[in-house]
From TrEMBL:
Protein name: Uncharacterized protein
Signal peptide residues on this chain, from the entry's feature table: 1-20
Organism lineage: Eukaryota, Fungi, Dikarya, Basidiomycota, Agaricomycotina
Keywords associated with the record: Signal
Amino acid sequence: MLFSLKTSFLALSWYARMQADTLENQAVAFFNPTVGGGSMLDSAAPPLGEPLNVIISGLSSPAVLTDSGFLNFAQAIGFSTECLGIHLGAPQSANLGDGNGFVNQTVELRQDFGDPDLGTCLESLIGGNHLRVFRQNGPLANSGALFLAVSKEEDVEEGHTIVPDGYDIGRDQLVSSAVGTTSFGGVTYSTAAQNLTGLLPVGSDGINHDIAIDGIVTLLTVTIQ
Ligand SMILES: *[C@@H]1O[C@H](CO)[C@@H](O)[C@H](O)[C@H]1NC(C)=O
Ligand SMILES: *[C@@H]1O[C@H](CO)[C@@H](O)[C@H](O)[C@H]1NC(C)=O
């Protein structure tokens, strides 16, 4: 009796240890920022924010989640670096609940209208789709996922603000150009989309430019072929 109790205890603690190891090493799509005191709205014009309406899953191919790898993927779906490296507007920051607190965007990219070198200059003039990238990699929630604030902008005459419904439209346009098979620079991607509700609020409360959102976040899993 004593012996078997001891054996079961040992077996149990071994099992618990295995579980802990597995959890620690297990890759995840992302962690909900609000659990760690963060938010799915970035800080744009405090207290107002813009929705982080697309997540590149931490289960994507690791290369896609690096700065250069994401840029290549973004070019495959019609985005590129800002016009001649000229940046319009201040950076935004986000708290992804990963223990890093507020961190500025790692990069801002614009729709390139088919020309990765100069097309974004056109976006700066005539408006178009636009994204900011935040990486969830702090010690409390190191998923490696990229959180994107996507929005469609007016032209420069309108002061480069967001078009009506511009957050949802920007998200849907980005997602439709990403889903399926795309390629750039000799790399081919296969991308799957899943809509998530309950992470973002619905409506315009707390949203920059008073533009209502439908509350959907699209999770993209990007796999290099
Ligand atoms: C973001 O960048 C701006 C401008 O470079 C800087 O003033 C600000 O302190 C940065 N914010 C964070 C949270 O790092
Ligand atoms: C996600 O939601 C958008 C907006 O309602 C919709 O257009 C799109 O088809 C949905 N995508 C998926 C994969 O369900």
